[in-house]
Amino acid sequence: SGAKVVGKVVKQMKGPKVIVYKMRPKKHYRKKRGHRQPFTRVMIESIKG
Question: Comparing C-alpha atoms, which of 15, 10, 3, 1 is closest to residue 44?
């Protein structure tokens, strides 16, 4: 409690591609969708507590 963390943003990236596939049998219902989650890489420079 009361700690201070100092860091800096290294890079903003996207995660690995995840493919979402929905299908209902015998109904010819098919949906294919891709997704990549954005995230930020942070370097922690110091922790003072």
Answer: 10
Mean pLDDT per segment of 10 residues, for the chain of length 49 residues?
93 97 96 97 95
Question: Could you report how far apart the first and last alpha carbons of the chain are, in Å?
Answer: 8
Overall pTM surpassing 0.70 (yes/no): no
Listed by start position, the domains of the chain span: 4-48
Residue (of 44, 36, 48, 46) closest to 9 by Cα position:
44
For residues 16 and 36, the answer to whether their CB atoms sit within 8 Å is yes
Q: Do strands 18-24 and 29-35 pair parallel, antiparallel, or not at all (unpaired)? A: antiparallel
> Which parts of 1-49 are beta strand (E)?
4-14, 18-24, 29-35, 38-48
